[in-house]
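Hey all, quick one. A colleague (J.T.) asked me to put the nicotinamide-adenine-dinucleotide job into the tracker so the inputs and the structure tokens live in one place instead of scattered across chat threads. No bug as far as I know, just bookkeeping. Sequence used:
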Amino acid sequence: MNDQTHYNLEICLPAGRYPVHLGPGLLGDAETWAGTLPPGKILIVSDSNVAPLYLDTVKQALGDRPAEILVLPAGETHKTVASWNQVMDKLVEIGALRDATLVALGGGVIGDLAGFAAATYMRGIRFVQAPTTLLAQVDASVGGKTAVNHPAGKNLVGAFHQPAAVIIDSETLNTLPLREYRAGLAEVVKYGVIRDPGFFEWLEQRVDALNEREVHVVLETIARCVRNKADVVAEDEKEHGVRALLNFGHTFAHALETLSGYNRYLHGEAVAIGMVVATTLSEQRGLCALGCATRIAGLLDALGLSLDWPAEISAEAAWEAMAMDKKALDSGLRLILAKGIGDAFVDQSSSQHDIVRAIETHTAATA
Ligand SMILES: NC(=O)c1ccc[n+]([C@@H]2O[C@H](COP(=O)([O-])OP(=O)(O)OC[C@H]3O[C@@H](n4cnc5c(N)ncnc54)[C@H](O)[C@@H]3O)[C@@H](O)[C@H]2O)c1
């Protein structure tokens, strides 16, 4: 058994590299913070759920380094230009200069928002990601995509801006609601399916430990995800190629989220269903060995994710939501499909008939 507790990982990009520190209790570790924060003003941005739990710990670890605080209301509905503006106002108010560091303490919403604020304030200041959800630890905090939502679309206003460091305190998962934890596990499984068959098998063998949030297994899970994400981002920082594979299951998931009014599913929950449908489609088109979709569904189900396609959303309606972008359709709907577990690829040759049939097959299987 692996009883490693601390991982020092690294993201390497053409323009430079940054560390990802991973371990239990790191938010309260003065040494980790001291090595991460050069002189200059510090602004910690957090949300109304996370701040009461972890802000004091971080402030204590900073010792006599003064830090300004901005706490925003929690939730995706606050990942807006208005919240971004609040961060700008705060940075101006505290007299932050180009040497300031912004710390994002929270889930993917705070990370994306604070990251975008850091990307834009004075044409870019340093920022440090301190992710507190499993989804943010294994995905959102690494790789430099930052954004806020616009009424016309999710993540419509954004920039690529890499953090200076990522500090992942695995103990924060102890307070994460079960539903949020499970939604994060869907994104964990995704890495196995798209590029890491050994990891997929490793997860299958550790379902109980994952469900119990067993410390060493959770730590190794996060480390393996970060390494996978690091490899993908190193190869394709701005999503011209392989980074698109991270969207496996997401086109189906977006259709589900849109048609259910964005209040029924957590993103990871919709992605779990989307991954199984994408694999069913791959199997039906003869691109993938039979049995893969069942195996993926088995793991997701064991991790507590519901895979039911909602009865009120027809396959045709989902197709239409997916095909909204006419330009995408002219050259074929762009989907990530699987050749097998650990081998995803970009495909544009699925017809409307193929897609509708895959959703209907999945609906019948989960009815
Ligand atoms: N930048 C990227 O590459 C990338 C990748 C994937 C997702 N995202 C973005 O991430 C966002 C979703 O992130 P999320 O799932 O972390 O959502 P989130 O930030 O809304 O966090 C989920 C909920 O958990 C609470 N919470 C966070 N940490 C907690 C903790 N330790 N204990 C108790 N409660 C806690 C939050 O307050 C919130 O209510 C979306 O906006 C998505 O677009 C970005």
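Adding what we noticed when we looked at it: The chain has a mean pLDDT of 95. Residues 178-366 form a domain with the Dehydroquinate synthase-like, alpha domain fold (CATH 1.20.1090.10).
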